Automatic annotation (TrEMBL), chain A:
InterPro entries (alphabetical): CbtB_put
Pfam families found in the cross-reference section: CbtB (PF09489)
Protein name: Cobalt transporter subunit CbtB
Transmembrane annotation, as ranges: 24-41
Statement: the UniProt record of this protein carries the keyword Membrane: yes
Record flagged with keyword Transmembrane helix: yes
UniProt keyword terms in alphabetical order: Membrane, Transmembrane, Transmembrane helix
From TrEMBL, chain B:
The keyword Transmembrane is annotated on this UniProt entry: yes
TM ranges: 12-35, 55-82, 94-112, 132-151, 160-181, 201-220
Protein name, UniProt field: Cobalamin cluster protein
UniProt keyword list: Membrane, Transmembrane, Transmembrane helix
Taxonomic source organism: Natronococcus jeotgali DSM 18795
Amino acid sequence: MTTSNETVRDRIDRARLELSPPQILAVVALTAALGFALLFLQEPLAHDSMHNFRHAAGITCH
Amino acid sequence: MIARYLERGVAAGTIAGLAYGAFMGLVGNPLVAYMEAAAHHDHGHEHASAVAETTTTIVSIGSGVLWGILLGGLFGLAYYFLEPSLPGAGTARAYVLAGAGFLSVSVAPWLLLPPATPGAQQALDTGTRLLVYAALMAVGALVSAAAVLAYRSVAARGRLVAAVAAVAPIVILGVAASLAAPTATANDALARELVAAFRGVVVLSQAALWLLVAGCFGWLHRRGGSDSTTARDRTSASNA
């Protein structure tokens, strides 16, 4: 494997070189938005629409 | 390079998510609907939903697909950063990471907040449960990290010893969780066997989702080559 002499630190440095701050921000924001909507959003319309999914995925619910 | 890992993660997550969405449509939706009806029948009160049943059915399937995509994307990113430190060779590492993900996202929270059956009465209010759930995800991630570190620290003594060392933090988590006050949910409206079967379906389906993400990711990773930024990129650039 090409990874044998690489470390986690190298990967972080490499990602810093490859990505611009707006790109990092976009990925973080999208992930957070999707995660929040699926896991934590309790607004009744959203919550009741995803009700079966949350039960079936074992995500905490109402 | 990180973009390729993210791409593969999202692609693997889409495949797994579509399978999970199909599972939601074929098993999840009817099962939850059946249990809801059974619980309300015995309980004698109807729970008014803010949306139509069809909406719940469709949005739940869609959420299942999105859930796979979210997990796959996070998996790809985590794999990029953690690949050098994960034990195992080649794409076996993907399964190690998927196990860690399953432990963090699902198993650790379930130790105190087992998958809630439809119609069950919860002992804690929603806000508290969300906090506990998020905190347990962090605990699960720490335990996964401890398991990997334990494995690596004794890896020289052989695989079996290392595997035992890796299991130790997970066992400690399980014991600690069983000693902590269990979060009581009153399921008296439903038969014990039905609740157990429901939880079994939830646990197995989430495990299968992670397995599928890891399997598809490993497959895409092997096809694409693990370090494709240099050689392959140059080839495709010169061909263009």
